[in-house]
Amino acid sequence: MSNREKTDAAVRPDRPLAELWHMFFANKAAVLGLVLWLLVITTAVFGLTIHPGDPFAMVGAPMTPPGEEFLLGTDYLGRDVLTGIIHGASVTLAIGFSATVCTAIIGVTIGVLAGYYGRWVDNLLMRVTEFFQVLPPMLFVMVLISLFTPSIYLIVLAIAVVSWTGMARLARAEFLKIKEMEYVKAERAMGARNASIMAKVILPNALPPLIVAIALNVGTAILFEAALSFLGLGDPNAFSWGYMIGSSREYIWDSWWTITFPGFAIFLTVLGVSLVGDGLNDALNPKLREL
Amino acid sequence: MKTFLVGLNRTIYSLVLLLAVIVLNFILVHIAPGDAVTAMIGDMGGATPELVAKLRADYGLDQSLFTQLHTHIWKMMRGDFGLSFTHRVPVRDLILDHLPATILLVTTAFFLALITGTILGIIAAQKPKSLVSHVVTVLSLSGFAAPIFWTGLMLLIVFAYLLPLFPASGMKTPGFQGTGLEAIVDVLKHLVLPAITLASVYIAVYSRLARASMLDVLGSDYIRTARSKGLSRRVVVYKHALKNGILPVVTMAGLQFSQLIAGAVVVETVFSWPGIGQLAFNAILRRDHPLLLGILFFSTLMVVVANLITDSSYRILDPRIR
Q1: Pick from A84, A142, A11, A27: which is nearest to B261 by CA?
Q2: Cα B311 to chain center, whole Å?
């Protein structure tokens, strides 16, 4: 593929998808990220069919090192680490995705309103955004969890409440830029309603950077959930990777495998997210490459 | 004069932000189920309705919400954050006891990340296709992807267990009697692993940012002019390019300070570092709301102060906004 075609993909909206695919798949790192992702999704969907088991069940001698009997060993309660990791994949994906959806809804709504309406709406919403930016996220979530009953919904919502500010700033910046474009002014002159201009005219054009931010946010949300579960503040019924590490923490000197493997699973998943996000960024926003 | 006015403006704005935190604290406590008295009665194992009414009156909970908010704001402004449920001492004293440890950890990690990240970014930007540049990219990707508590635990396994170079927990060796320099060295030894752990994430972020911004700056006209004047590469990179290349890093560092403090909470629990993060962790386990809310306020205060400092250092670095 020649360079000329590459630049064309960025400016020509008529056949973007095929070009996008091409650019994305030409990027080795992005493909690696995608492979990591498929691996995690496959594990979450089919893992239990291949390797069935209850992650909470005691299946062997406590702290059996990795080997023939248990591929990744057992923890201090004799629970199979491999079963735990397979279970953790679905918990991690579920929380990562739902928290990101909530984050995107809050962030994009606030950013869009601020950027489109400007003036006092913008002023007010941006002060609110700045306020949320000075609150240390982990401490704020700890306060929320301690004041209300911890559940998976509270955790998802709490992650969203502390993560939306970046998305809001990005959406605002895009809307501020695009609303001055001629085609938007033309729509307005033709009497289109604000809601329709925002949703049908500006939003599609603001999507590329937002998609990248949303993709990368999945990684942040996964890390956040992992840290919460590690601290023992997660949903006690969800067998997540962070919980596995947190619960085995005191046995770190006797069984390194109960901490190393689940952590490595988080690492690979988030790495996959970053690589895919970067790949999308290169493909969707060629001008912003390297940023 | 203008600088002074801008500074004054920023300070007033910061105070408003802090006031907002106080109000948020108040709102959260009021929408949460139960109140201070319910919690106390729970601890006592029940009480007569008369006692409940008396306690509510003692704590001012029978007054209107507006009056309560008013008292709440005045109390916090005078530094009265109430009593910790579990420790039975003023929240303020507990936090002030633990704050220095957190400030030490956070500032060490911050400067470690800022300096290492910038240096790595500059090295990578000078030869974008070289091995060093790729190593920096891989490092920054892994630094971001590894959960911070896991990085800490892995460092513990390697540097406190397999190669016992550093102590595994705390800030001082128990029973250590040394004074002066010895005591400082003892604390520093304890500081190494937590500081590296906390810095790892931000080394990743800053090196990536510094690399991108230096690449951008090194390609600009004034750098070409400087080179064509015959200045050495070193002078061009470190005297001309660095000043502009570092600006985005400083901006980002300032914006992320709240996340740095949040990261410290996790790191402190991994290494039993006696700061406000560990205090917060224990407060949450015992549902000690006044303590937790006090910590939220103090940590936000730290962020606001750090933002003011970043803001002024930005003014020094960039004459355009002076």
Answers
A1: A142
A2: 16
> ipTM for the complex?
0.82
Residue B48 carries which side chain, given as an amino acid letter? T
* Amino acid found at B292: L
Cβ-defined contact of A245 to B32 (cutoff 8 Å): no
* SS3 state of residue A51: coil
Kindly list the distances between the CA atom of residue B156 and the CA atoms of A259, B164, B190, B194, B279, in Å, as whole numbers in the listed order: 11, 9, 12, 9, 22
Tell me what pLDDT residue B105 has: 92
Chain length of chain A: 291
Task: Say which residues have a Cβ less than 8 Å from residue A103's Cβ, sequence separation at least 6.
Answer: A159, A160, A163, A164, A167, A214, A217, A221
Q: How far apart are the first and last CA of chain A?
A: 24
Q: pTM for this structure?
A: 0.84
Residue with tokens 């008529």: A14
Q: Which residues, listed in sequence order, are joined to residue A80 by a DSSP beta bridge?
A: A74
Q: What is the CA radius of gyration of chain A?
A: 22
Interface residue of B99, B284, B296, B298 to substitute, partner A, most A CBs within 10 Å: B284
Give the span between the Cα atoms of B2 and A179, in whole angstroms.
Answer: 33
Q: Which of B96, B24, B22, B30 is nearest to B59 (CA)?
A: B30
Q: How far is CA B212 from CA A36, A288, B253, in A?
A: 26, 10, 15
Closest CA to A86 of A45, A37, A38, A33: A45
pLDDT (tens, 9 = 90+) of chain B, 322 residues, equals: 667 777 788 888 888 888 888 888 888 877 776 666 666 666 666 667 777 777 777 666 666 777 778 877 887 777 777 777 777 788 888 888 888 889 999 999 999 998 888 888 888 877 777 787 788 888 888 888 899 999 999 998 888 888 877 777 777 777 777 677 777 888 888 888 999 999 998 888 888 888 888 877 777 777 777 777 777 777 777 777 777 777 878 877 777 788 888 888 899 988 888 888 888 888 887 777 788 888 888 888 888 888 888 777 777 776 665 5
pLDDT at residue B195, rounded to an integer: 93
Contact A195, A263 (CB under 8 A): no
In DSSP terms, which residues pair with A207 in a beta bridge?
A: none
3-state secondary structure (DSSP) of residue A77: coil
Distance from CA of B256 to the nearest CA of A (A): 8
Residue B10 near residue B286 (C-beta atoms within 8 A): no
8-state DSSP, B108? H
SS3 content of chain A, % helix, strand, coil (to 5): 75, 0, 25
Asked if B284 lies within 8 A of A130 by C-beta distance, the reply is no
Pick from A233, A249, A256: CB nearest B284: A233
Q: Which residues in A lie closer than 8 A to residue B219 (C-beta atoms)?
A: none
Nearest CA in chain A to B299: A136
Short-list A240, A182, A254, A229, CA closest to A55 = A240
Greater confidence (A67 vs A226) lies with A226
Q: Residue B258 and residue A231: Cβ atoms within 8 Å?
A: no
Is B36 buried (19+), middle (13-18) or exposed (0-12) by CB count in 10 A? middle
Calpha distance A51→B105 (Å, rounded): 43
Give the tens place of pLDDT for each residue, A84-123: 888 888 888 888 899 999 999 999 899 888 888 878 888 8
